[in-house]
Automatic annotation (TrEMBL):
SUPFAM superfamilies with a match to the protein in the record: Acyl-CoA dehydrogenase C-terminal domain-like (SSF47203), Acyl-CoA dehydrogenase NM domain-like (SSF56645)
InterPro entries: Acyl-CoA_DH_C, Acyl-CoA_Oxase/DH_mid-dom_sf, AcylCo_DH-like_C, AcylCoA_DH/ox_N, AcylCoA_DH/ox_N_sf, AcylCoA_DH/oxidase_NM_dom_sf
Species of origin: Cryobacterium zongtaii
Keyword Transferase recorded: no
Record protein name field: Acyl-CoA dehydrogenase
Transmembrane among keywords: no
Domain Acyl-CoA dehydrogenase/oxidase N-terminal: 25-93
GO molecular function, one term: acyl-CoA dehydrogenase activity
Key words of the record: Oxidoreductase
All residue ranges annotated as the Acyl-CoA dehydrogenase C-terminal domain in the record: 251-375
Length: 396
């Protein structure tokens, strides 16, 4: 096996959940879900049956007990077979990863996520809002306090992956009942709440199977035991915020790196298959320009894999990067997405005009990889975070 055709790094045998047969079935359905703009119910059902949705849940809570580096490797493998499926389940896996990271640090506030995920609950990620570039540090959703400590949420959440199947929605809103002391409220909502509706509006360029629909909250109720944090707006040092940022950025990077690896595989196959009339019918794999593109793509990927694994390990082992934690995580997401985009673009050039047809897998990967531009941290946000880590905050 050549260096460029080797499979993406996998987790150790004890961490492997996705066997080749399962991944093959998932890949066989991906193009149809993309073409029809439908949700991969069969994929999610098979992943749940394999225990994948409880992969990060510690064994004492009924899960498989994978480490974050192991799951990151598995997510790359899944994304190489069905990017939209990987992105969809990523959001559930993020919540289990947040709960695990908090538990590892002695914070029990999200232990119910671990217990319920082991019992089959599916967690959605209801954080993004139209026009809210504050992301975790502000909200346009109203969180109205209720007697007994609960809250009612009213607002619009966008990019809610797993919309057709999530059973619990982790979300946040702004409690402005005391203008002198506004609070960001983090809580979990039950799908059965009558104040929750979803719009069937996910008709997008790529990642179509994720069905990340808009969620409308109209007084949706979270009882006191589902309110997990009330924090001041803005950056704050809290295990919940760290857990969300770390797990989201690492697993998201894994998804887009998996897309890039599949693109490289397809590019290598195209270079060996395609022939050049101007070079006496020799394979394009003998063309110096094609070889350089393949090599450039492989070099880009080789730089990303160890970054994902190292930061995932650091989260699990409670390494203290101090003020550089957020810079490293934002940087990882930015580099992995930009590298993935470049890899796919290079392989489109290797594959030639066939990629421009809608049924071509590389063409689909090109559309899917573009979604990475819109996830936090965006390029501008990542650069601002890194600049602040090195230079300090901007003057008022």
């Amino acid at each position: 096996m050549t260096e460029s055709s080797r499979p993406a790094p996998t987790s150790p045998a004890s961490g492997a959940v996705l066997d080749d047969a399962l991944l093959g079935r998932i890949r066989s359905r991906a193009a149809a879900h993309d073409a029809a703009n439908t949700f991969p119910f069969d994929d999610v059902a098979e992943l749940a049956a394999a225990g994948y949705l409880r992969a990060l849940v510690p064994t004492r809570f009924g899960g498989l007990g994978l480490t974050l580096p192991q799951l990151a490797a598995e997510q790359s493998r899944l994304a190489a077979h069905a990017p939209a499926t990987a992105l969809a389940v990523n959001m559930h896996l993020v919540w289990t990863g947040v709960a695990k990271a908090m538990h590892d640090r002695g914070d029990t506030a999200l232990e119910f996520v671990l217990t319920e995920a082991a019992q089959g609950a599916i967690f959605g990620f209801g954080v993004s809002e139209p026009g809210n570039d504050l992301v975790l540090f502000g909200s346009s959703t109203d969180a109205a306090p209720q007697q007994g400590g609960g809250y009612r949420f009213t607002g619009t959440k966008i990019f809610t992956s797993l919309s057709p199947v999530w059973t619990q929605l982790g979300t946040m809103g702004l409690d402005s009942s005391d203008p002198a002391r506004p609070l960001i409220v983090w809580a979990f909502l039950d799908r059965a709440d009558p104040g929750i509706t979803r719009k069937d509006d996910w008709d997008t360029l790529g990642m179509r199977g994720s069905q990340s629909q808009t969620t409308l909250l109209d007084g949706a109720s979270a009882p006191a035991d589902r309110v997990v944090r009330t924090l001041p707006p803005g950056p704050v040092n809290d295990p919940l915020i760290f857990g969300i940022f770390a797990t989201f950025e690492i697993l998201l990077s894994s998804v887009y790196t998996g897309i890039a690896h599949r693109a490289l595989e397809l590019g290598v196959a195209a270079a060996k298959r395609r022939r050049s009339a101007k070079n006496d019918g020799r394979a394009l794999a003998q063309d110096p320009d094609i070889r350089r593109r393949i090599a450039e793509a492989a070099l880009l990927l080789d730089a990303v894999y160890p970054q994902i694994q190292t930061l995932a390990r650091d989260v699990d082992t409670l390494v203290d990067h101090g003020p550089f934690w957020f810079a490293r995580l934002a940087g990882l997401k930015h580099r992995s997405v930009e590298s993935a985009k470049e890899v796919v673009d290079l392989m489109l050039r290797v594959n030639g005009g066939a990629s421009y047809f809608t049924g071509d897998e590389l063409g689909r990967l090109y559309r899917d990889v573009l979604a990475g531009l819109f996830h936090p941290s965006t390029a501008d946000s990542a650069h601002a975070t890194v600049a602040t880590a090195w230079l300090g905050p901007l003057d008022d």
